[in-house]
Amino acid sequence: MHRLIAALCVAALSVTGLAACGSSDDTSTEPSGGAAKSGTVGAPGASVKFIAPKDGSTTGSTVVAKVKLSGFKLDPADVGKKAKQGQGHLHFSMDGGKYDTPKYSGANGKLAVQLGVDGQYSPSTAPTITYKGLPPGKHTLEVYLANNDHTDTGVEQVTTFTVK
């Protein structure tokens, strides 16, 4: 299954020309030792932190999320290839994937559709993503560091905010 997703991602990048794949307390969430689940490549020492939106903040219906990475290299050229420790791309998930569709996450959502992961996450090889048209209320945004082969490194971060 991962090979199919990886092949679709590489094809989608070629066709679209996109540089995308597939609560914040000012500290990143990382499993003990930075390792991912057994059998996958982790990102020891890597961290991710939301710069925006700040945890507990209030925003408009357009949200530009930005993260800061440490110990992890975004690697657009190798998306879909073999996992390499400490490099890959990002998976953003708004409200458990509810808003990870083209209507809300634009080009990232279109790529999610091509990969068959829409409604789960929006892939990205940039440290930012824009969600438009979010409804009023409380929202939770998660970001995961993903290996080139789309497996989870085990490093993630969460922020919550309210749309007025």
Summarize the helix and strand pattern as letters: HEEEEEHEEEE
**What is the beta-strand fraction?**
25-35%
> What is the level 1 CATH name?
Mainly Beta
- In this structure, how is the largest beta sheet organized? 6 strands, mixed
Number of domains: 1
Please estimate the helix content.
10-25%
Task: Report the count of strand segments.
Answer: 9
Distance between the termini: 40 Å
CATH topology: Immunoglobulin-like
Compute the CA-based radius of gyration.
15 Å
- How would the global form be characterised? globular
Residue runs with pLDDT of under 50 for 5 or more positions: 1-38
List keywords for this structure.
164 residues, alpha+beta, Immunoglobulin-like, 3-stranded antiparallel β-sheet, 2 helices, disordered N terminus
